[in-house]
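User: I'm putting together notes for a lab meeting next week and I want to include a structural view of one of the chains we've been expressing. I don't have a solved structure, so I'd like a prediction I can at least talk through. The sequence is below, exactly as it appears in our construct file.
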Amino acid sequence: MVLLSGGLDSATVAAIAREQGFEPCAISFQYGQRHLVELESAARVAASLGITRHVTLEFDLRKFGGSALTGDYAVPKGRGPEAIGQGIPITYVPARNTIFLGFALAFAETIGANDIFIGVNALDYSGYPDCRPEYIAAFEGMARLATKAGVEGKGRLKIHAPLMALDKAGIIRRGMALGVDYALTWSCYDPQPWSKPCNRCDACLLRAKGFAEAGSSDPLLNSRRGAPPRTPA
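Assistant: Thanks for the context. Below is the predicted structure for the 233-residue chain, given as structure tokens.
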């Protein structure tokens, strides 16, 4: 079971799961986020990796708000690396990974899967508390207590976070080695018209930094995604 957001981290994790011999199923979420471009990307990534079972769940966290991604707050723009790494930003969605992993756990248990892959990392994680190794370990322990398979000893659930110790450049290098097409992925928190990345939010800046440090150019910026629609002749 792979949590697939459409971003470069989750795309890389899906490729890693496949490399390790798993036959991944994927789960994505339409949770009231500011845009749906990432879900279009998730579908493209799933297709490119040969993932045939891809479920998208819909629920509305805008009813809670509390985040620039699910409420009427401005997305921070133009912050430097030090500012991005300090504190918990307004783009943090309260309990989002707990909610996502809970749904993934339910899906995994119904299909008899014991392995859940998630693309969190503790280096370029923008201060989100639910991207830390302590959190992943705690959720894994809870999941083993809370499931029928765990109680009956029919399966030992494992939460895989293979990107945990990698920075964005390391993630990109890993994905490129696995043939991930990053032109299909999406990172921007605040897309501009025609689904063009803003290139100024924290996610865009971390992505750009990663590609630069990996010695590569971002294929998304060189693709026709984000370009104005062509006018018929």
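A couple of points you could mention at the meeting. The chain is about 35% helix and 10% strand. The beta strands are 2-3, 26-30, 54-58, 115-117, 158-160.

User: Perfect, that's what I needed.
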